[in-house]
From TrEMBL:
PANTHER family on file: TELOMERASE CAJAL BODY PROTEIN 1 (PTHR13211)
Alphabetized Pfam families for the sequence: WD40 (PF00400)
Taxonomic superkingdom: Eukaryota
Species whose genome carries this gene: Lagenidium giganteum
Protein name, per record: Telomerase Cajal body protein 1
InterPro entries from the UniProt entry: SWT21/TCAB1_mRNA_Telomere, WD40/YVTN_repeat-like_dom_sf, WD40_repeat_dom_sf, WD40_rpt
């Protein structure tokens, strides 16, 4: 690719890791301790066990598996996405350990549901959301064959719709969505393009930034833009990952391509994420066990690679602790892996989910490491006697049995890792 800088993997640099240590370590912030096992604070599975209707085939499916989880910016609730195309909001009573302790016979229900008309591709919280100000309690989503929707997190009502149209003047669906740093615009990823909307003007007014002229063009970023993330240092730059296997960094103001990187053996990028200090960029891809950390300020090379099990096309999310020192990632085998960014070491793998750990999201607390995790994946139940006259009843029986199994596989949980800090430094 002529206009694309191709990066190659270098061995982990001690100097580079020292740079991460200097930029993320604060003695008063959370420090991991292996002395105690991560504690389970919240568990629910009831709403992910019932059979759902697949929007793709309009047939019953027993497996309403989760597809991701995001903790709200104020840490008081958790938003999930699942196979039935419903975004569910759960109240986790953050800070109240007694309220969070799971009861053996209880599976807390969601307090709000937002139903999309197709498979949900991506969703995002308003970054300055606080439950004390209802006007800020919003989130956006993008789904198959539908425009971008803004939802009210208090009542589940649709607040606004943002429509984008293709060259045939037909509504086109976005594949990724993110608020910019000042939260006055919504950036949405499409095929070879990024479009953005002014949140104060919900309509068909939008701006388009074409990234590649044609599908075969050798210049620019090709493919569907699958992930967008804005640098938290307010430098007005953002990263965009593509299913073509490339990741580019752009200027928010001009749309100029500032840096292009390609790795993961050309596999489709599923997530991009800047470090808390904005100096590093983390990328992950489908069917790729690696999460790669890039130094985007100086060497523009890979600082370290974090490993997990990911051998399917399913998106396996990762997240960074808000103090900047730890990375948590889901894994295909149900493990949630916690890495120390200052050393690159795996420090904990004791959180185990009953199926693939596809969603991971830290709570916004620099003095604790509390994380919401979700599990589940698509399972194919093949039947040998599909041509028999009793096949329908057999399929229904299998569906019922699979539904009970799904109750065990598909879960939303909250864990808290042990801390190696004095009690008087822990925020209430």
């Amino acid at each position: 690719v002529d206009a694309m800088t191709t990066m190659t993997i270098n061995a982990t640099s001690v100097d580079a890791l020292d740079g991460i240590a200097q930029s993320t370590t604060n003695p008063s912030y959370y420090a991991y301790s292996s002395a105690s096992k991560p504690g389970l604070l919240f568990h629910t599975d009831r709403e992910f066990a019932a059979p759902c209707v697949s929007s793709a085939a309009s047939t019953a499916s027993a497996n309403n598996f989760l597809k991701g989880v995001q903790v709200s910016p104020d840490g008081l609730c958790v938003l999930t996405n699942s196979e039935d195309n419903v975004l569910r909001l759960f109240e986790t009573a953050y800070g109240d350990e007694k309220a969070l302790q799971p009861a053996a016979d209880q599976s807390p229900a969601s307090i709000l549901q937002a139903k999309e008309g197709g498979a949900v591709y991506d969703f995002a919280w308003y970054p300055y959301m606080t439950s004390q100000d209802p006007a800020t309690c919003i989130f956006v989503s993008t789904s198959r064959d539908h425009p971008v929707h803004m939802w009210d997190a208090y009542n589940g009502q649709l607040r606004a719709t943002y429509r984008a149209f293709d060259h045939l003047v037909e509504i086109t669906a976005g594949y990724s969505v993110a608020f910019n740093g000042t939260a006055d615009k919504i950036f949405v990823g499409y095929d070879r393009a990024i479009r953005y909307f002014d949140i104060s003007q919900p309509s068909r007014d939008f701006q388009t930034r074409a990234l590649c002229k044609t599908r075969r063009s050798r210049r620019g970023q090709r493919g569907i833009i699958s992930s967008i993330h804005f640098n938290p240092d307010h430098s007005r730059i953002y990263a965009a990952g593509s299913y073509s296997g490339s990741t580019c960094i752009y200027s928010e103001d001009t749309g100029e391509e500032l840096l292009a990187i390609r790795d993961h053996d050309g596999k489709g990028i599923t997530q991009v994420r800047f470090s808390v200090d904005g100096r590093y960029l983390f990328t992950a891809a489908r069917k790729d066990a690696r999460i790669q950390c890039w130094d985007i300020r100086q060497t523009r090379e890979i600082v370290h690679t974090f490993h997990r099990l990911a051998d399917t096309n399913q998106r396996m999310a990762f997240d960074l602790h808000c103090a900047g020192r730890y990375l948590a990632t889901g894994s295909q085998d149900g493990k949630v892996l916690l890495y120390d960014l200052t050393t690159g070491d795996l420090v904990d793998d004791r959180v185990r989910l009953p199926d693939a750990a596809n969603g991971v999201s830290f709570f916004p607390d620099a003095y604790r490491a509390r994380v919401a995790v979700s599990s589940g994946q698509r399972h194919f139940d093949l039947h040998d006697n599909l041509d028999d006259e009793d096949s329908d009843s057999e399929h229904q029986a299998a569906l019922t049995a699979s539904s009970s199994e799904a109750a065990v596989r598909n879960v939303l949980r909250v864990y808290e890792y042990g801390a190696d800090v004095p009690n008087d430094t822990v925020a209430p």
